């Protein structure tokens, strides 16, 4: 089962390091990418971030990049629906790991005032999709966020954080830049659902909810699936990946895949499992649980009321 991933959440607006908030109606690119090979000193260095940048840049400069956009556009639409579910507008928002802007195209200027779109791949930013929202493009690495505290009202990120080496640190940085918003990731293939709430709680978020989406796509065969993952910029970038697989090995793997999971029509399914998580940074306006001992009705009285209601329904 394939499990690509992503994320979204809320924050507020002072200024952004290296990026002016003036003239946001004009699309421009500002750079905030760390030196190549740079990672957090405490991070597990699992992924080659330079290779991931190259993969995403290669995918974005293909003649028809939209051919491989179907999954990211679908997930972007689902994230936008969750933004619309929140009864407020967001003057300043950030899409972290935006790719070609798959979320922004599903949002409107009544909901989002201005949108910063940040990605590690400059070609993705240069070929971004059209949106009615004023945007600013920022070349930035998810592991080294260039934004000051309390910057954004909303931060979204889709199908990006599963390639981050130090995910807890990235979430903590997001918590620092958020002011009074919420956060929802579709997280990595290397984390259990039961750990997601703990991860956000550790980063400083509360009122957490988690749900799971599954998107199944049928492909003619394993090689077509691999071609599409490459076209999406989702090829493996683990340091311990095999540099070369022999042709016989690939053909055998394709045959086993078809034999074990193949559909009656000869196609093979790939299931993308996406974890949505919503959390809110603490704010004095949030509802709080009542103080211990402040209840005016006992559990015994509630039980009696419940029994009376049950009898009334039966009669």
Please characterize this protein's 3D structure.
The chain has 315 residues and is an alpha/beta fold. The protein is built from eight helices and nine strands. It has a nine-stranded mixed beta sheet. The chain starts with 5 loop residues before the first strand and ends with a helix.
Helical fraction: 25-40%
Mean pLDDT: 76
Q: Can you write the helix and strand succession as a string?
A: EEHHEEHEEHEHEHHEH
Provide the CATH architecture of the domain at 49-167 and 183-211 and 275-281.
3-Layer(aba) Sandwich
- Main sheet: strand order: 2-5-4-3-6-1-7-9-8
Sheet-strand content, in percent, reads: 15-25%
Low-confidence stretches: 1-29, 37-42, 182-189
Would you tell me the structural class of the helices and strands? alpha/beta
The dominant shape is globular
Intertermini distance: 52 Å
Blueprint of the fold:
Blueprint: E1 6-9, E2 29-32, H1 49-60, H2 70-84, E3 90-96, E4 112-119, H3 122-126, E5 135-140, E6 154-157, H4 167-177, E7 182-186, H5 193-203, E8 205-219, H6 222-231, H7 247-261, E9 268-281, H8 299-314
Parallel strand pairs: 2-5, 3-4, 3-6, 4-5
Antiparallel strand pairs: 1-6, 1-7, 7-9, 8-9
Helix pairs in contact: 4-5
Pfam families: Methyltransf_11
Protein name: Arginine-hydroxylase NDUFAF5, mitochondrial
Keywords: Methyltransferase, Transferase
């Amino acid at each position: 089962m394939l499990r690509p991933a992503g994320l979204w959440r809320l924050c507020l607006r002072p200024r952004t390091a290296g990026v002016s908030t003036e003239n946001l109606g004009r699309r421009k690119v500002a750079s905030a990418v760390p030196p190549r090979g740079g990672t957090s000193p405490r991070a597990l260095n699992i992924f080659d971030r330079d290779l991931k940048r190259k993969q995403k840049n290669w995918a974005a400069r293909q003649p028809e990049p939209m051919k491989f956009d179907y999954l990211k556009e679908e997930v972007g639409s689902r994230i936008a629906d969750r933004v619309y579910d929140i009864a407020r507008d967001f003057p300043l928002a950030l899409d972290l790991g935006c790719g070609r802007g798959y979320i922004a195209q599903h949002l409107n200027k009544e909901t989002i005032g201005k949108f910063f779109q940040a990605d590690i791949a400059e070609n993705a930013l240069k070929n971004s999709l059209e949106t009615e929202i004023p945007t600013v493009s920022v070349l930035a690495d998810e592991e080294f966020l260039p934004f000051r505290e309390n910057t954004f009202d909303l931060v979204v990120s889709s199908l990006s954080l599963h390639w981050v080496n130090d995910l807890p640190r990235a979430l903590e940085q997001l918590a620092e830049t958020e002011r009074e918003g919420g956060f929802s990731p579709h997280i990595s293939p290397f984390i259990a659902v039961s750990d997601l709430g703990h991860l956000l709680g550790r980063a400083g978020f509360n009122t957490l909810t988690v749900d799971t989406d599954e998107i199944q796509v049928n492909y003619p065969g394993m090689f077509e699936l691999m071609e599409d993952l490459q076209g999406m910029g989702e090829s493996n970038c683990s340091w311990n990946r095999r540099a070369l697989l022999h042709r016989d090995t690939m053909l055998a793997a394709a045959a086993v895949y078809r034999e074990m999971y193949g559909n009656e029509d000869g196609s093979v399914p790939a299931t993308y499992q996406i974890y949505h998580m919503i959390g809110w940074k603490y704010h004095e306006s949030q509802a709080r649980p009542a103080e211990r001992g402040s209840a005016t009705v006992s559990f015994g009285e509630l039980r009696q009321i419940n029994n009376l209601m049950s009898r009334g329904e039966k009669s």
